[in-house]
Amino acid sequence: MKNMFKLALRGLLRNRRRSMVTLLAIAFGFSAIALFAGYTHNVYDGLGRQSIHGEMLGHLTLYKKGMRQEGKLDPERYLLTAQEVADITRLVQEEPHVRLVAPRLGMSGLISNGRASTIFIAEGIEPEAVVKLREGSLTEAERKSGMFDNMKMRLDKDRPEVVSLSEGLAEMLHLKEGEVAQVLVNTLSGQANAADVTLGKSFNTGNAGSNDKFAFVSLALARNLLDAAGRAQRLTILLDDVNQTAAMRDRLQAKLKAAGFDVEILTWQELSDFYNQVHGMFDMIFGFIFSIVLTVVIMSVANSMGMTVVERTREIGTLRAIGLKRSGVIRLFTLESMLLTLFGCITGLLISLLVRWGVNAANISYIPPNSASPVPLLVDLDVGRTIFTFVLMGVVGTLAAYMPARRAAKKDIIDALGHV
C-alpha cells in the first residue's frame, strides 16, 4: 500500500499543470460552499436571536387551546383568567432551565397626536419582563452595527402610561420623547375606551412592514384599556438554553395536561414566519449551489483522470506485465483521484478560513430586504456542513476516476504496450 501511495503521488506530479488546475477547481468550489454555509449559519443564528429576544417571542409561548384560531373572533372566551395565569406560572417556574414566565396581552386601535390619527398594534408586557427578554442577546459586532436598535426600548414600571412607539410611528405623528398622545381601543365587550399615553423611547422593529405601526405598552395599561383585569392572551417562556426548547415544550405540555389545563405550547421557530421563510430560501439556495459545485468537481476530476489514463496506457500495460492485477490498476487511479480531491478540499478549507477572516475584519454591513436597519456581513464556521461537504466531495471525486480506470484495466496487456 505504501508503494501504491508513492505511485499515486508521482502520477499526480507527472502533469503538474493539469493536476493544479483540477485541484484549484476543487478548492474554489469547496471554499464557495464552506463560505456560503458559514454565512447562512450566521444569518440563522442572528434571525433566531432576533426572534427570541428582538421580537420578544421567548423560547416558548403558551396559549389556551383554540386561541390562535377562534380567539380572533371571540378573544374574551379564549383569554387565560387571572387564576389560570397564576397557577400555570407556578407550575412552569418549577421546571429547571426556566428563567422567565411573562403574561402578554395584544391589542390594536387608533393613536392620535391631537391633529392626526393612525392605526397601531401594541403588545402589553410587564416592564421587568422586557429587560429579561432583551438582556445578553447581542454579539459585540451586532451592538456596534445598530442591527437591533429596538433593544433600547424600555417601559417604566412606576408609570404605566409610558409607552414605546416604533420609530416610523413616532415620526408619522411627530411625537418626541415625553410628549403626550391619545389611544382609542375596544374593550373585550366591544365598548370604546381611551387613555392618554406618554412617549418614552422609540425603537426600530428591524422590519419595514411594522416599523410604522408597532408599540409596546405596560401590561397594566393594556389590561386597563381592554378591561381585562388579571387576564392574559398568552404566556411567554424564556429558557436559559435554546437547545432545551423542544424538550421543555414536550415536558410542559404533559405536565400541564396532567394538571387539567387545556393549552397549546409553540416554539419560537413555529411562531416566527420570517425565520422559517428565510431558512427555507437559504436551504434551497445552498442545495442549488452545492449541486452545481459537485457537478463541476465530478466533471473536472473525471476529465483529468480520463486524460491521464489515456496518456499512461503504456505504463498501465507495463504494470500489468510485471504482475499488477486489474483491480490494482483501478485502485491506483482511484487513489490518485482521492489524493487530488483531498488536497483540493484542504486547500479550499484554507482559502475559506482566510476569506472568512478578511470578511469578518472588514466591518461590512448591508440592509437586507424588508429590513429597516443595516446588519453586519459576517461569516461563521459551519462545522457540520463543512465536514459533510469535505466527505462527500472526497467520495464523489474518488468515484469519478473509477470508470476511466476500469476501461484502462480491461485492455489487453499487448494492446496497452503497443498503444501510441
Automatic annotation (TrEMBL):
The record lists the membrane-crossing segments as 284-310, 330-355, 383-403
MacB-like periplasmic core domain: residues covered: 19-254
Which UniProt keywords are given for this protein, alphabetically ordered?
Cell membrane, Membrane, Transmembrane, Transmembrane helix
Q: Where is this gene product found?
A: Cell membrane
Keyword Ligase listed? The answer is: no
**One Pfam assignment:** FtsX
Start and end residues of each ABC3 transporter permease C-terminal domain? 288-412
* GO terms classed as biological process: lipoprotein localization to outer membrane
How is this protein positioned relative to the membrane?
Multi-pass membrane protein
- Domain of life according to the entry: Bacteria
Gene Ontology CC entries for this record:
plasma membrane protein complex
Give the principal location in a single coarse category.
Answer: membrane
**InterPro entries (UniProt xref):** ABC3_permease_C, Lipoprotein-release_system, MacB_PCD
Task: Provide the family line.
Answer: Belongs to the ABC-4 integral membrane protein family. LolC/E subfamily.
Instruction: State the name under which the record lists this protein.
Output: ABC3 transporter permease protein domain-containing protein
Annotated source species: Sideroxydans lithotrophicus (strain ES-1)
